[in-house]
């Protein structure tokens, strides 16, 4: 059944739909091309034998006999050599070598050339499979990007609404403050949150702080509006685009404590706190493979890519999958990193916990501690990965604690979650930074030894505004 046609009022959305359809068609074409090869075809083996014949056997006086009336046994011998190479490598088993020496007067050269031709063909197959794998990775990226721009365009079109009375009221009110309004656009998001985009400038040579303008907009519009993240701070004589959105009901504060392997100052763990579109905030921990400077560069690169994609509006799971594909495509060796991400909705208090190979996360409420685990793989290992995610509702004064596996591994096997729960439940600290340092100090004192791996504790507290 064909997908139901969707009609759009905006020509821009129609054009974006065309772009998305073209990307999906290109992605589909890529995926339908040849698949990875796990074995050689009979034609490819035939070419290998022909090459050996031309470079070795044609110089032998028995060539006509071996490749003529005795060609069945010659082919059989060649197949036995290739089978033995697959099983034993270049060092063939004794029985295969004995058979070859009995049947071939140029056994050493025949064997050496056959192995060389086979290794070259095997290497070509590996490179072809890598190209096919990279092509599939590109196809997945294009398909994902097509879905994202299509969804974003539709949501944007659906969220715009006209409010002539309010537009006139805001324009008049701002004009009294010497602010000229070039355009006003009203949005109502799918979550029911208001947003206003305006292009404005000052009518004289004065300036106005954007936060002051937000107060005027709030009073006139009837909702508490705040400048969107990343806005300019001041409006002057030049036109500027400003976005005001409804103020959140919650705010967060965070604290971190970390130590490198062997008490080193350099840790392979990286962390980040990000302001995201739509009144969200994220906390991310990434543990690079190994420890030290190399692991630090790896985990920091992952966070830099993640920040870029999330701040551009990519959905978190889509961003992680795109980074994973990039890491797998771009390297011959495996270099994996974990991703432990918590995304806080500051309007509702909802927290989404997303994990790719990451350690446990703990939530401390007033009277209990909950721990959340994951069995997913890190990024950078497989082309397509399963990403674990779950949601929890947080309240005023709740804390979320994220740790890397170095913290868990420092505690007795099988008791890590229980011991950390006791440590978290046993402290009355309300400052995230103090709590993070307390937990790390408790783990280090429990073990009593220098850290065997990088250790990081990230604590985020959430409170009502």
TrEMBL record:
Protein's UniProt name: PPM-type phosphatase domain-containing protein
Record carries keyword Hydrolase: yes
Domain of life of the native organism: Bacteria
PROSITE patterns in UniProt: PPM_2
Organism encoding this protein: Mediterraneibacter butyricigenes
Record keywords: Coiled coil, Hydrolase
PANTHER family linked to this entry: STAGE II SPORULATION PROTEIN E, STAGE II SPORULATION PROTEIN E-RELATED
Domain PPM-type phosphatase: 270-462
């Amino acid at each position: 059944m064909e997908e139901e046609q969707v009609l759009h009022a905006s020509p821009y959305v129609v054009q974006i739909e065309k772009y998305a359809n073209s990307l999906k068609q290109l992605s589909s074409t890529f995926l339908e091309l040849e698949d990875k090869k796990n074995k050689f075809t009979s034609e490819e083996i035939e070419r290998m034998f022909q090459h050996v014949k031309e470079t070795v056997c044609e110089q032998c006086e028995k060539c006509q006999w071996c490749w003529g009336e005795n060609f069945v046994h010659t082919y059989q011998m060649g197949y036995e050599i290739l089978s033995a190479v697959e099983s034993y490598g270049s060092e063939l088993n004794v029985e295969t070598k004995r058979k070859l020496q009995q049947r071939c007067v140029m056994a050493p050269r025949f064997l050496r050339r056959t192995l060389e031709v086979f290794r070259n063909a095997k290497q070509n197959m590996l490179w072809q499979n890598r190209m096919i794998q990279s092509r599939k990775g590109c196809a997945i990226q294009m398909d994902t990007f097509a879905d994202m721009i299509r969804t974003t365009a539709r949501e944007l079109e659906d969220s715009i609404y006209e409010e002539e009375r309010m537009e006139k009221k805001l324009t008049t009110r701002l004009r009294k403050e010497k602010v000229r309004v070039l355009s006003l656009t009203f949005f109502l998001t799918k979550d029911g949150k208001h947003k206003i985009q305006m292009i404005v400038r000052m009518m004289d040579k004065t300036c106005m702080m954007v936060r002051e303008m937000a107060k005027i907009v709030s009073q006139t519009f009837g909702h508490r509006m705040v400048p969107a993240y990343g806005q300019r701070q001041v409006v002057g004589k030049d036109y500027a685009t400003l976005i005001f959105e409804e103020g959140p009901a919650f705010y967060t504060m965070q604290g971190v404590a970390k130590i490198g392997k062997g008490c080193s100052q350099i840790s392979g763990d990286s962390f980040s706190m990000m302001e995201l579109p739509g009144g969200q905030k994220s906390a991310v921990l990434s543990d690079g493979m190994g420890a030290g400077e190399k692991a630090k560069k790896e985990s920091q690169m992952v966070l830099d890519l993640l920040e870029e994609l999330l701040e551009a509006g990519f959905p978190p799971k889509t961003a992680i999958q795109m980074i994973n594909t990039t890491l797998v495509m771009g390297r011959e060796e495996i270099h994996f990193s974990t991703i432990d991400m918590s995304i806080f909705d500051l309007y509702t208090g909802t927290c989404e916990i997303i994990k790719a190979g990451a350690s446990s996360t703990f939530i401390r409420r007033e009277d209990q501690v909950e721990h959340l685990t994951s069995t997913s793989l890190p990024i950078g290992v497989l082309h397509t990965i399963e990403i674990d995610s779950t949601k929890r509702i947080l309240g005023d004064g709740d804390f979320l604690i994220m740790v890397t596996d170095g913290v868990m591994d420092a505690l007795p096997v099988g008791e890590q979650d229980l011991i950390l729960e006791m440590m978290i439940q046993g402290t009355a600290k309300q400052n995230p930074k103090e709590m993070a340092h307390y937990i790390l100090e408790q783990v280090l004192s429990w073990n009593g030894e220098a850290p065997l791996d990088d250790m990081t504790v990230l604590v985020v507290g959430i409170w009502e505004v």
